[in-house]
Specification:
about 210 residues, mainly alpha, Rna Polymerase Sigma Factor, Chain: A, Arc Repressor Mutant, subunit A, 2 domains, globular, RNA polymerase sigma factor, DNA binding
Length: about 210
Amino acid sequence: MDPIRPVRDGAPSIEGAPAPAAAADTHGQLADLLRRSGRGDQGAFAALYDATSRRAYGLAVRVVRDPAQAEEVTQEAYLEVWRSSTRFDPARGSALSWILTIVHRKAVDRVRSAEASSRRDLTYHQQNQPVDHDATAEAAEASLEAHRVRGALAHLTEVQREALELAYFGGYTHTEVATMLDLPVGTAKTRIRDGLIRLRDAMGVGR
């Protein structure tokens, strides 16, 4: 059975979770907890949850802007962490960044789903309204630009992309990104700067 139960008091909880460990969020310890979780160790998963859930929930709130939905997103993300923990590769990044990437993806999916639903409702109510050609052109241009950005993000390394997404799509400061990814602030700034340069080049900005 998946060891996740409903959220209480603004943060998801896990059945049988022990008290949070003071120093449980170091890179090596989290990686070890993930490996043990991949072998079905529910105690390790509970400790992993305790060490990372506040940051995960905070990221979800930043993206979806709604505490209740953020709780659901966090639960969904940890369910995926539990089920896919065997896929974690420490050579590709820290355990915390791997978890936050899953949270961010789930949160973005939730926002996109809500936006799509709103667009469907709006389309339904405007079916018999005159077409505003200027607004249509602006929407098409915005959609094209978003498509270009998503395509350009694929040219970044994974570590550049995760730092850039947290800083510019998640709204976090450089210091917060460094804390969430378990990095020195200087390293986080470098990843964000290099990611922006590579993103600009991929989009042909300034050419």
